[in-house]
Design brief:
By secondary structure, this protein is mostly helical. Helices cover 50% and strands 0% of the residues. It comes from Actinoplanes awajinensis subsp. mycoplanecinus.
Length: 114
């Protein structure tokens, strides 16, 4: 009933409208238990679904990175967000560029096994 002319205007129209309604039967105790059993356990982490738009090139890069990491794209994106937030944390203690370069020179190159 999206238009005013579809709204019952008389008692007879209202009776006809009400007579045309149908209702689902109440859930059985077994259906209720099945629904409760399908819920995550109490105390589980609540996950929120977000929708975002990415340029195709960025989406393809994310997909490639996720394949290399052998994780689903959503996991890779979530981990990237977690890392970005960790970098911006208030308790982060930035280091100088010289200290960073000194630390990097101590690292050995990664060797990729084919």
């Amino acid at each position: 009933m999206s238009h005013d002319n579809e709204i019952p205007q008389t008692a007879e129209q209202l009776a006809a409208f009400m007579g045309g309604l149908s209702f689902e039967s109440p859930a059985t105790p077994q259906d209720e238990q099945a629904l409760l059993d399908s819920l995550p356990p109490a105390g589980s982490t609540v996950m929120v679904v977000r929708s975002l738009r990415l340029p195709i090139e960025l989406d393809e890069a994310v997909a490639a990175a996720a394949r290399v990491a052998e994780v689903p794209k959503t996991t890779w994106i979530r981990q990237a967000i977690e890392m970005a937030l960790a970098v911006q944390a208030e308790d982060d203690q930035p280091i100088s560029r010289a200290e960073a370069l000194r630390a990097l020179t101590l690292l050995r190159p990664a060797r990729h096994v084919a």
